[in-house]
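PT: before anyone asks, these are the final sequences, not the draft ones from last week. 358 residues across everything. Please model them as a single complex and drop the result in this thread when it's through.
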Amino acid sequence: MQVKTSVILISLAIFLLVVDLIRRQKITFRYSLFWLFTCSVALILGSSPRLLDRLANLAGFTLPSNFVFFLLLSFFIILSLLLTLYINEQNSRTEILAQKIAILQQKLGELEKKSGPEKGSGG
Amino acid sequence: MKPENVLVVIPAYNEERAIRRLVQEIKLCYPHFHVVVINDGSTDNTVGEGEAGGGVVVSLPFNLGIGGAVQTGYKIALEGGFDCMVQIDGDYQHDPKYIMSIITPVLSGELDLCIGSRFLSPDAPFRSTFLRRIGIRFFAILLGWITGIHITDPTSGFRATGAKLIRQFALYYPMDFPEPEAIQIAKRYRAKIGEAPVQMRSRLGGRSSIRYLTTLYYMIKVTFAILIDTMKKKE
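LR: through. Structure below.
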């Protein structure tokens, strides 16, 4: 099998997997965007070695394979940066929720205390 | 301005040894103030002791750190429409006697943020350790250079905030080691910032949130945060 074929097959498989994950509501479009974009780039570069050669040259790489490794590394760096961002987003939301719950819980306790004795004494 | 409109917030993490005495003392000195203990996920009897002292206890479901606890206080102050919020440490380090001196400039509208400084009172018995004082000086100089305001005790967690800043801090407040950064944020909101002399004691219980291993992190984080804050949009 040619390299070209395997690259296209794998990129296509990942692309379809991500689309299926969106369809099954396991992942939202927002979080899949980066994957879909990367798969598309891999598909384009995989199906056109001439484009890959030219881009590699443009970026200053003698060997196109090194350029591919460079792209792969960049993909993971950007991905981990995005993941850090998402974790932070979750963190600040959890924080807001924790504060809200604490305030509501205290208010609820106060209300219960107020209505509690009334029930016991029958008014 | 009505004295009922002052909220005293005590962030507390495992402070069962000091919290009851502190709340009782505040209640005794200022019977009209609302006292709220923010229990920051304590594993000891901080809740029971705080309530025994007569305070309202708000319990966070897990430990958020000092900033998260204080911000909870700001949210309560905003919701309750308080004119002034006082933040006082739960470890008995800050003498509640001095609450009056730090809220007076805020209630009169003279200041939006009044920091209780241990270095302004002439006969302070407790001025922290040598190393800690170097750190405090560093932030004092950094903040002076950036904000143009000379604060002698920028790390002090004994401070009073007016309604204008309560609104802002309820929306955003730094999560860890917030005190010096909050001064820069206040400055960004064009707040009037000043100090009042207070006396501090050595702590009765608990540990300082600043320990040796975290000192380096503290210095770098706060310096970085202050510099980053200067790049945020001015209001």
